[in-house]
Write a sequence for this structure.
């Protein structure tokens, strides 16, 4: 999509769970149907922006985006509002709620988070709920002190974190259960090189968002209608069960996890 296109059209951004061509094609199929139901003026560009960067999510032409719940409740507070969230068929999901798997190398002798004290952790970013916030919360119960790990490798993405653990560059990572399931579908050899030693607390899954103050009712309904019409092969590819309405209240538990970790004296994962 060009800058000129953005000047006249609204656009849809989908940067989550879209790490290969097959997943992007399945999301495109969903949003093509969504556009038919959304009845937007000005028109919506049919070309999906597969990006969840801040410049994209703050673009005034964005009609609909997809982001993590942690930045939604922190740096995007008052900027973005959630309208709906997808439910997935993946181990660690319960309806709209999801968790992270704490993974180590398959041939590692590590069997618990406590055993990872003094090791190296890989995180996709400090603004991630599934890669950082829920892990920080779990570690806070272990009397972590000021520093639990000998090092933190910031990888930039869940797949890169899995690769870091599989290759031995890191000893531990917290991986979104949906991402791990989708990675298992796409690259079973990679996922076979890691194993789970536990799971995090659950929170509401990654929301579809709109600019704060935007009209949301028709868009949430359009998403649900598009999901209902999505072909079975696309739904299977995405592991998509359904899409349901959500509000900011559904994401309050993410902030609670942060506050509980900080109250325990573990303000920053390190």
């Amino acid at each position: 999509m060009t800058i000129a296109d953005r000047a006249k059209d609204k656009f849809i951004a989908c940067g989550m769970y879209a790490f290969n061509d097959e997943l992007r094609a399945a999301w495109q199929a969903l949003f093509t149907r969504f556009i038919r139901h959304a009845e937007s003026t000005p028109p919506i560009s049919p070309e999906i922006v597969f990006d969840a960067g801040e410049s994209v999510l703050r673009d005034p032409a964005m009609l609909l985006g997809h982001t993590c719940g942690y930045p939604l409740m922190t740096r995007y507070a008052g900027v973005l509002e959630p309208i709906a969230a997808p439910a997935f068929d993946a181990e660690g999901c319960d309806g709209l709620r999801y968790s992270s798997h704490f993974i180590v190398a398959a041939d590692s002798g590590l069997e618990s988070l406590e055993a990872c004290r003094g090791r190296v952790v890989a995180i996709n970013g400090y603004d991630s709920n599934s890669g950082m916030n829920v892990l920080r919360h779990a570690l806070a119960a272990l009397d972590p002190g000021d520093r639990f790990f000998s090092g933190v490798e910031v990888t930039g993405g869940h797949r890169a974190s899995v690769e870091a653990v599989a290759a031995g560059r890191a000893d531990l990572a917290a991986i979104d259960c949906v991402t791990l399931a989708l990675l298992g579908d796409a690259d079973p050899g990679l996922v076979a090189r890691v194993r789970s030693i536990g799971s995090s607390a659950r929170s509401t899954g990654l929301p579809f968002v709109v600019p704060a103050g935007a009209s949301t009712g028709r868009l949430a309904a359009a998403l649900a209608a598009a999901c209902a019409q999505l072909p079975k092969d696309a739904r299977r590819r995405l592991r998509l069960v359904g899409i349901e309405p959500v509000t900011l209240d559904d994401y309050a538990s993410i902030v609670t996890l942060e506050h509980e970790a900080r109250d325990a004296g573990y303000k920053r994962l390190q």
Q: What stands out?
A: The longest helix spans residues 21-38. Residues 1-7 have pLDDT under 50 and may be disordered. Residues 97-203 form a domain with the D-Maltodextrin-Binding Protein; domain 2 fold (CATH 3.40.190.10). The chain is about 35% helix and 20% strand.
